Amino acid sequence: MLKYANLSLLFFFPLAWFAPLLRAGIDLPLFGLSEISVISGLQALWQSDVILALLVTVFALFAPYLKTIGLALLHFGLLSPRALPALHLAGKLAMADIFLIALYIIVVKGVGLARVEVAWGLYVFTACILASLLIGLITGKPRRHPSVLTDA
Description:
The protein is mainly alpha-helical. It contains six helices and three strands; from the N terminus they run αββααααβα.
């Protein structure tokens, strides 16, 4: 079950990256709200600061996806359990959770005359991050077989 939950992240992460996370705009009747996604945010960042955009792209997109692929390989017996520390490092390098926290701060603080609304993609993104963290934690724990009795 765990391996299939992890595999589902290979679909849900990209969906979350393109889904609208927020709707933001000026709080005036004639101005609509623009939808902001992870990808549109990165596109804006690429136009203003290429180095920062490259770092955020690597740590917000590639690191969590590589961790998910690595865990899938591990779950299906195609990768040695010795690679688990490297996968945990990839999880630590993944800035998806930091990006999520930054988004929450933006939502809570708001901006002067601006209006910010949470969109459905934020919930998908949050679920992906929490699922990835949980799957990584469960995968890293040694398993005990219920029929094996140990002396304490």
